[in-house]
Amino acid sequence: METGNSQTYQDILETFKLGKKALTISDISRLSGHHRHTVARYLDNLVLSGKLEMRQHGQKKKYYISDIQPESSILNFSPHMLIILNTDLSIRWANNSFLRMINTSIEAISNLSIEALQLDELFGPELLAAIRTVSPGDTRTEEARIEHDDKVTLYLFTISSVAFFQERPALVITGEDITEKKGLQEAIRTSESNLRVITESVHDMIIRWEPDGTITYVSPACELLTGYVSQELMGKTIVEFIHPEDIPRFQNGNDEQAVNWSRLPSSFRFRTLKGKWIWFETTTTPRLSETGEVLDYISVWRDITAWLEAETKLALSEEKYRRLFEGAKDAIILMELAEDLNHVRFREVNNLTCQMTGYSYQEFFNLSLYDMIPKAQWNLFKNVTEKFRENEQAFFEIDIMRKDGRHIPVEINAHLFYLQGKPVVLAITRDITERRKTEAAIREAHQRLEDILEFLPDPVFVLDTESRVTAWNRAMTELTGVTKEEIIGEGDYAYAYAFYHQKRPVLADYILHHDESVLYRYNNPETSDNVVTVDVQTFHPVTKNRIWLWIKAAPIYGLSGEIIGVIETLRDISERKLMELEIRKQNAIFEALSRAASDILQSSTFEDAALRTISHIGEATSVSRVCLLEKSLSTSVQLIKSELEWNAKTGNAGRTRSPFSLRSKNEEEESVIQTVFKEEKPVYSLVKNLGDGDRQVLEPYGVRSILLVPVKIHQEIWGAVGFLESHSDRIWSRKEINALEIGSSLIGSAIMRFKAGENLEKSEKQFRTLAQNIPGIVFRVSLAGSDMEFYNEHLESVTGYSAKELASGQISSLIPLIFPDDKQRVIEVKKESIKTGEPYEIEYRIIDKFGHIRVMSERGRPVSDESGLVVSIDGIIQEVATA
Questions:
Q1: Nearest partner of 76 among 104, 101, 99, 102, judged by Cα
Q2: pLDDT tens per residue across span 419-433
Q3: What are phi and psi of 867, to 5 degrees?
Q4: Looking at domain 445-571, which CATH architecture does it have?
Q5: Distance of alpha carbon 401 from alpha carbon 410, whole angstroms
Q6: Is the pLDDT of residue 266 over 80?
Q7: 269 strand-pairing partners
Q8: Angle at the Cα of 751 from the Cα atoms of 749 and 756, rounded to 5 degrees
Q9: Neighbouring residues of 804: CB distance < 8 A, sequence distance ≥ 6
Q10: Which CATH superfamily is domain 579-758 in?
Q11: DSSP-assigned beta bridge partners for residue 336
């Protein structure tokens, strides 16, 4: 059985469960969703199988669900070849069509097997295989070609496993002659293919819709005409796309909901995909069923938008021509020529022509052309007419003479054409008096602009839209050495060659052509409102020195807003750039000094602080080497006592011996380091400009320039910081040197700080040694935290308490040990001393650790910080001997 046959049978039988007892073929086709031809074929088999009953009602056939029918009634009723087989594939029954086919009777073949009848030779092995393999309750179809009586017939066999009386199983085989049907189907397919080719080829749109207006088919021309592809319209209603003003012509009377799709007007407006309304002219035909019902509508739509517009334009053309002719802002003259094109006659003029010339409309027709041309320009006019006869058109300027004798300049655009077979000249004439004044003003303004450009301090040049030089001011000549006379009118990048000595596009070319590759030649170009600016480092075209330029290119606009040229300005900003560079270098040194100052405070030794400082300065200045040179004693032969060095190549800093260590004081020639120590100010020089002695010790190390900055301590020269450059003849700016002098001061301060620390440590050590030999308690009290520090070990011998007991918090100071009657007096004396800053001396009693009363003498003085604030009290406490 072919795929879907069982489902088709089931679909047909299910339609009888929807309420109606009797159904026509059309009803079953509509309810089951299958084509009526398919339904008809399967209905026959269902009737033969006894599942349905067919009754004739006039011209219509109606089908009913029936009980199991006798085999004979089924067989006799069928118009097709019909065979009933038992389950063992023997003949149970056959109708006359089959019997005639094999030329026998039912009695002769009854209960014979299909093999005995040799049906495979007649029907073919495929049909016999299908019969043998059909399953109970299954239905299969198989086509077979049968040759009989010298005739080939195509049959469609349906093999069904069914049950008859008392549920006797059997195989019912029906054979339908489909030779004619196949031919008809092939003809239909050919017709449909041809129709599809036609519908897809025509430029008109073919559309089909259901009676409710739902579109079911649209030809491919739809996309060309409306912008919609066919699938976008299918499933939608036509009314969604019809202009609201045209919809009433679809409707029945005033009922807006009652749309009569058979009343599609002959022309209407349709909304395209882009929202534009176009006009369609239509021819619509309803397609009817056998019963006369409307199945759908087929319509051919033709776009008549252009035709309607042309028709409208044609209707208005004469009126428009007259209005344009009379309302034109130019004088229009229509002249008729003789056959030889030499003689003319005025045929028509508009009102503006009369106003321009002062002649009336009637007077014009009595004039000749030479009545309106001044004699001084007759030769010019003759030359123009000769060219006109050659080219059949002319565009020229000339003066014409008014009726009152005044001359006015005009611009004439003349064309030859043929009207009703006669040569006619249409001359559009424009009064250019104001334009001549404007042109004169523009020339004057242009001259003023050239004068302004000429005396601008910045180099400026101007290009036209063809990249030809139209202006080249004096500053540009001074910059490039190329004169205005040499370059005005030149193109082919002559302006670039004058500056860069090569033909290449510049910023002005970018404004004209907007070629992005031009901007790639510059670093960080800035664009705003079609104006481009850049900063460029390049070489002076004449001196070849390195210079910085600020370049700006901007368009020049005409009166109508179009670009008519471009102006490029160059400004030498070398001084500003050098100053910015110096400031950046100075700031880098300041930042390095800031880091160095922080490192000095965190360093434990002077050498560590000094090495960090020269490393920071060396990295900031990008110099090859930095040396910290300590001056030798005056009794020493050598100039340098010790050296610290930072090397950029290795990135290391430490103690070393520099070339300066090779110089001594005994040489007759004064060394550059001696000069620094003597003059006490920075010294800069290229090595090649130094004396022989300095060159001999510096050049082997590859040093090309040096800078020495003195380091002072208490206004005395301690040494110097040396900056040695090996990569170039470096020139140090004044700002860099000033910053490095601050760096040398920082090093001097670090030296003093560490020396002061060393002295303080030495003094502290001496003081503690002395305090140990003084009888009594030597102490310091901090006023910030009331902490008490003892400088010797006599506390325990006097009070009985050890320093550890005092530190552990058992007693916070000596105040708790003072005899109660004396305590307030002691406190007041100390307060007064702190207030006045004067020393004090007082006697009082204490109670020692063992409860003994002792008389003590205390002398002390307040200690202040740099701001004068008392921060501590230093003093000594001694026991007073009692009698």
A1: 99
A2: 767 888 888 898 888
A3: -90, 0
A4: 2-Layer Sandwich (3.30)
A5: 10
A6: no
A7: 279
A8: 95
A9: none
A10: GAF domain (3.30.450.40)
A11: 345, 424
